[in-house]
Amino acid sequence: MELIRAEHLTKTYGKDENVVAALDDVSLSIEKGDFVAIIGASGSGKSTLLHMLGGVDRPTSGTVMVDGKDIFKQNDEQLSIFRRREVGLVYQFFNLIPVLTVVENITMPVLLDHRKVNQERLDELLELLRLKDRKDFFPNQLSGGQQQRVAIGRALINAPTILLADEPTGNLDSKNSQEVVELLKYSNVKYNQTTVLITHDENVALQAKRIITIQDGRIKHDEVIRK
What we know:
Layout: E1 2-13, E2 20-31, E3 35-39, H1 46-53, E4 61-66, E5 69-70, H2 76-86, E6 87-91, H3 102-112, H4 119-128, H5 144-156, E7 162-166, H6 174-190, E8 194-198, H7 202-205, E9 210-215, E10 218-224
């Protein structure tokens, strides 16, 4: 079942002779529950594409349909609610709030949405992320791998339909990188989340179900490597 459909996505910066196309007429479809890796050189447009799929950035032209609805027909407030409730975002640089504890960082999206924290889900995530004994620690008391696990917990706490990860292993050693990838794979299967991962690491990309290669703002290659 198709969950995401992007059609003729274009994103340009600048004007006239200075115009630069970060994305150039990109179209793709992603099935519900799929695990897609997007690879490409720096500046190829892969992060721009990820941000479009999650409603983080608006395209110059083109559409993104999620579950049959054009997300960019929503106003900014509606789009913000969509991102909070339907999309989980994980970045390379953790982006944790230093004065908040592990639990407070994880639950922040729920509290910002003025909703009650699902304690059962929080406990499940703390167990899954091996952070139960660190739940009252602050980010500066954690290793890089632990901080990234907190960031993943924050992305998962609202049980999003879509999980987007932008170079989530970029700041980690090989052992912690593999742990993060295993968590993303587990979440993809357990919660049937549609996961889109950006990476420079071919070994990480090969653990996805499908690999899309971006070059100069266009899709160069799109291959399903496992069902």
